[in-house]
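Table S2 (continued). Query chain:
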Amino acid sequence: MLSIASCECDDSTLLGCSRQHWKNIQSLAYFYPLRYLIHCILSFPNQFFRLPRRQPSELTNTTLEQRPTAVFISRPSSLLKKSQKLTLWPLVAATFFMVSGGTYGTEDIIGGSGFARGILILLITPILWSLPTSLMIGELASAMPEEGGYYAWVRRAMGNMWGFQEAWLSLVASIFDMAIYPTLFVTYLTKLFPYFSVGHRGVMVALAIVVVCAAMNIAGIRVVATTSVWLFVLLSIPFVAIAVLALLHHGGFAQVATGGGTTNIGLIGGILICMWNYMGWDNATTVASEVNHPQRTYPRAMAAAVTIVAVSYTLPFAAMWLTGIGPKAFGEGSWADIAGMLGGPALRIAIVGGGMLSAFGMFNALVMSYSRLPLAMAQDGLMPHVFTKMTPRTRAPWVAIVACAVAWAMCLGLGFERLVTIDILLYGASLGLEFVALIVLRIKAPDMPRPYKVPGGTLGAIALSIVPISLLGFSIVQSKGETVAGMNALYFGLLVIASGFAAYGIKLLLKPTGWFVQSVKPESNAA
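Corresponding output:
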């Protein structure tokens, strides 16, 4: 499903090559950051279960001219009623779709690495990759539950320019990323109804997905989050059925003939695919001011979401391992065939339908996340003031939602495979700025109230960033062979990053003091 550079090993050398890779992984166990992560794992539950009950900081409403770059001032809240704000489990469900969307897309890990190594990858990657990110998010989101999330953290730590770059990286990455999900929806739909593969019918369905999700987001954050909860339940039922039926067929598929496989990704390629499937934990933070008791809710939501995503990836594969089926049975889109073997046509249709729900849920949740960035930037004067307009009842940023939806709809023709390197590169640069913000704020604002705090002081914050940043650099090097429009994807991504500085320069030329003309009351932001 993903086009990622892999370890170049044929069948005769795969075992020796994998052993060398495993020795490299083992050497990390003696590396201080990994031991520090273990310390964080042990201390994390004790800290977030004892989080004090705190109210968000006092709201202020100032113009950009009144806001020194080096001093952070809270922007106006979305002023949602408590009953309209997100609670723990709706936030967990939304985070699930922002990051994962289910077991789809992980089949190549088992097909190329085998059951033992594949499941090990699925278990180790969240420890090395997701856990440090969730710990960082837990501290910053509970300390600064601001609209815009990670953009607000970077802006407070390093000023307007770097805050602009953080938002630019995420919004540009969304242009390349968001075209994936309506296309995936259509791909699964055509497996059930080939009618939609003819002519432009598939494109019209994809466009309808964009419109429906935009309308649901305008209807309010509770609509999106509640929908995510039900989609998660419906999506999980077919895979729970697979796990149960696999246990009932213990050893029953040992003699089933499987194909030669369509992938030979090895350990390194499996890690890269796994990293891609564990990206996006910070997306849930852009709606922080719309979350009930964010100081307590975010650390708990991150812990729950990491656990649920890891279990949803590993449990179905572990159950299928017990049936004796060969790992080469797994490849792109193989869950539908395996479901048919276990439960007949009904379960196969359920898995294909689940793929449609997964694509819809991911797009819907990410619309909620990305649309808050133009809102927060406009509130800070870094984008035109029109993006601050919100619906009177639900306080949804309807102008930002519509603008983003139009941009994403224009990109529906982009291919899927060519987006991976750009996705990792832009997300990696954005995540790197967030870890820098964590460290800088430890130095600049040591007395900032932090309901949850990563242990170890400033050195602990630095150590926390080393492993995920190293994995990002490694993944970019490994996937450098991809191309976009005839250009090396790595160079194209660097060009996109550089364009962010050019865009900020243009903004300074056009509006050196920002787009705010006068201070306005929060109530006047309604459409």
